[in-house]
């Protein structure tokens, strides 16, 4: 009676495993069907055409079944059932009662333990074959797991971490997490002929049995999928991978300097957060500064955000002294030599290494990067008392250039305020959020770009001055705020109000005596450019093209141009602007996004799609094909 109950429990368990695998496959299948099925209109168009291939597609069972299922989802949305019942595809996760997939065939169970060191059997050769099958599959599945986790790894680190995981000792230990190996411990090892097996021999035997177990899982018919086996192995290997990856960070992230640096600085010696800040400097150049806490440790430039971040991170990774100073993880010199740098012509690495030769003073000068170097008020970042007030060390060339600029500035009317003059300005707690973008466009008309240099006067007190990028002695104005962003916006507001940039370029024109230059307005000339009038229906801000449609009037798209967002970014980047997206969830598989120019309230496109990404791509396509973008860039 008891044996029947146990057999019945095993049958139910086996059925459950099969159902779990089937549902996991169904979830992925139905998502693919809903996302790619053809509408009845598309079917009719294909069927009525002259193309034989299109006619074949329109009449194929796969297309007809998928279209029928998609049409029927108004009454029964199969995909929603998985959300409703909170289906978890990963049956072997940490919360599951199932610690490992099981071999259902008793014949295969016996074969797994038919090791030549354990029993005398005619099946020993079959077991050796099964061990080889399992070893090959284990290598392949582990390669997939490692590659997906470390897609930027170089070959050396990839093979090393794989070799460590496949160590016999680890495989032997993992057998304890497989229920079937209870039989191995209690019955097979208890046999008299196996009592003299040494610990080393036992570890080898167990690792072989682990491999044969994987081989049996793969070849057994009507059982779990290889994806389920991969999920199980990933959960089994994850703690070890997490532990040993820090010995190979240079190699595992050799193709992604930002990701590599982020992992090096995890749980760093001072418990500080690492973050990257980027800013567009010109239409072809972006700058990035890396902060550890409130201290800049490196900066760099590139043609876009990604390149700037990669170059800034690479400048640290190529200097072992910085990593050793902050990181608790070992720096592998051999793998560091293989670092894949993204350096391009527009890149300009500027390294900030703590140095005792550069103490901060009250009126500290900052370099020509656009980000602030805050005073380091927290001594926990420093290793001894002598390092309490340090800034980044600059290269001799840059220092010499800055001295020349500072000396020349005294003889020019576009000079920086003194500290007393800075503190005499009102301290603003709020500012316009669009003036920086407006000034960017105004100065961009002269083929130049603004640059902001910010210093901290005291706690929650910042002063920012606005300059012309790569133009010495070009201070156009400044502003004071309770944080860096407010100070920069206030500086832009002052420059727009005084129109000092026009005076600056007029001075340059007079010095160059260039008759073909742009005509600049004098103070007594009338400026035809007017402020936005909210009551003017013909103004850009009130253009019909900028009014968002009611989202239900938009077509729900399932496919999109996957390069639209990239193309829009490039198009706006020519004028020094960036697109930004806001997305709302309307319903399941129904999203609405609108695209606007960053730091403005100007909407240039909108879209509706079956995923967030699709709706954003459609919004970008709408912007590229619509009139709003043209009006904005031509205004």
Topology overview:
Elements: H1 2-36, H2 40-47, H3 52-59, H4 61-72, H5 78-84, H6 106-112, H7 124-149, H8 155-165, H9 168-174, H10 181-188, H11 199-219, H12 226-244, H13 249-252, H14 257-264, E1 274-282, E2 285-292, E3 295-302, H15 305-317, H16 320-326, H17 333-336, E4 350-351, E5 354-359, E6 390-392, H18 396-409, H19 419-424, H20 435-444, E7 450-458, E8 461-468, E9 477-481, H21 484-498, H22 500-512, H23 564-573, E10 579-587, E11 590-597, E12 603-609, H24 612-625, H25 628-634
Antiparallel strand pairs: 1-2, 2-3, 3-4, 5-6, 7-8, 8-9, 10-11, 11-12
Helix content: 40-55%
Structural class: alpha+beta
The CATH first-level class of the domain at 106-246 comes to Mainly Alpha
What is the strand tally?
12
- The CATH homologous superfamily of the domain at 106-246 corresponds to Ribonuclease III domain
Mean pLDDT: 75
Radius of gyration: 33 Å
> Going across the major beta sheet, what is the strand order?
1-2-3-4
- Give unreliable regions as ranges: 342-413, 512-534, 536-550
Fold-level CATH name of the domain at 106-246: Ribonuclease iii, N-terminal Endonuclease Domain, Chain A
- Counting DSSP H or I runs of 4 or more residues, the number of helices is 25
Our measurement of the CA-to-CA distance between the termini, rounded to an integer number of angstroms, reads 87 Å
Query: Architecture of the domain at 106-246, according to CATH?
Result: Orthogonal Bundle
Strand content: 5-15%
Mind describing the biggest β-sheet? 4 strands, antiparallel
Label the overall shape.
Answer: flat
């Amino acid at each position: 009676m008891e044996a029947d109950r146990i057999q019945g429990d095993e049958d139910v368990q086996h059925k459950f495993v099969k159902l779990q695998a089937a549902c996991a496959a169904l979830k992925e299948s139905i998502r693919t069907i809903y996302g790619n099925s053809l509408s009845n209109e598309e079917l009719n168009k294909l069927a009525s055409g002259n193309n034989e291939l299109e006619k074949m597609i329109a009449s194929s069972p796969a297309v007809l079944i998928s279209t029928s299922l998609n049409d029927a989802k108004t009454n029964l949305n199969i995909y929603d059932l998985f959300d409703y019942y909170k289906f978890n595809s990963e049956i072997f996760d940490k919360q599951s009662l199932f610690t490992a997939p099981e071999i259902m065939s008793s014949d295969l169970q016996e074969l797994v333990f038919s090791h030549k060191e354990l029993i005398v059997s005619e099946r020993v050769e079959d077991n050796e074959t099964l061990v080889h099958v399992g070893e090959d599959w284990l290598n392949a599945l582990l390669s997939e797991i490692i590659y997906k986790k470390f897609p930027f790894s170089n070959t050396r680190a990839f093979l090393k971490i794989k070799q460590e995981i496949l160590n016999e000792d680890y495989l032997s230990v993992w057998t304890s997490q497989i229920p079937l190996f209870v039989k191995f411990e209690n019955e097979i090892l208890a046999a008299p002929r196996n009592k003299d097996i040494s610990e080393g021999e036992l570890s080898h035997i167990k690792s072989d049995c682990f491999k044969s177990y994987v081989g049996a899982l793969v070849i057994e018919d009507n059982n779990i999928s290889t994806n389920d086996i991969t999920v199980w192995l990933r959960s089994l290997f994850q703690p070890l991978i997490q532990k040993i990856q820090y010995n190979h960070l240079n190699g595992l992230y050799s193709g992604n300097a930002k990701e590599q640096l982020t992992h090096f600085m995890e749980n760093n010696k001072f418990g500080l957060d690492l973050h990257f800040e980027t800013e567009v400097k010109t239409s072809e150049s972006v700058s990035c500064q890396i902060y550890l806490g409130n201290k800049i440790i490196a900066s760099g430039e590139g043609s876009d955000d990604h390149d700037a971040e990669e170059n800034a991170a690479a400048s640290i990774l190529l200097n072992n002294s910085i990593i050793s100073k902050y990181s608790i993880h070992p720096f592998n010199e051999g793998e560091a030599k293989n670092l894949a740098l993204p350096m391009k012509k527009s890149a300009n690495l500027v390294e900030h290494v703590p140095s005792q030769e550069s103490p901060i003073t009250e009126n500290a000068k900052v370099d020509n990067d656009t980000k602030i170097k805050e005073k380091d008020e927290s001594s926990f970042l420093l290793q001894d008392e002598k390092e309490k007030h340090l800034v980044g060390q600059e290269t001799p060339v840059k220092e010499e250039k800055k001295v020349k600029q500072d000396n020349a500035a005294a003889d020019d009317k576009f000079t920086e305020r003194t500290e007393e003059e800075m503190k005499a300005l009102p301290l603003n707690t709020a500012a316009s959020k669009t003036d920086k973008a407006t000034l960017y466009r105004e100065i961009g008309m002269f083929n130049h770009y603004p640059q902001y240099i910010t210093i901290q006067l005291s706690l929650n007190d910042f002063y920012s001055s606005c300059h012309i990028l790569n133009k010495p002695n070009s201070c156009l104005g400044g502003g004071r705020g309770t944080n860096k962003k407010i100070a920069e916006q206030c500086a832009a507001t002052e420059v727009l109000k005084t129109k000092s940039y026009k005076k600056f370029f007029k001075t340059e024109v007079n010095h160059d005596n260039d008759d073909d230059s742009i005509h600049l307005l004098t103070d007594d000339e009338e400026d035809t450019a007017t402020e936005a009038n909210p009551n003017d229906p013909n103004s850009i801000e009130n253009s019909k093209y900028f009014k968002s449609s009611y989202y239900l009037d938009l077509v729900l798209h399932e496919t999109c141009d996957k390069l639209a967002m990239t193309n829009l970014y490039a198009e706006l980047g020519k004028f020094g602007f960036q697109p930004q997206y806001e997305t709302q969830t309307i319903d399941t598989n129904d999203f609405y996004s609108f695209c606007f120019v960053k730091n403005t309230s100007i909407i240039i496109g909108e879209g509706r799609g079956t995923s967030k990404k699709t709706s954003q791509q459609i919004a970008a396509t709408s912007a590229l094909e619509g009139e709003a973008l043209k009006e904005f860039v031509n205004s």
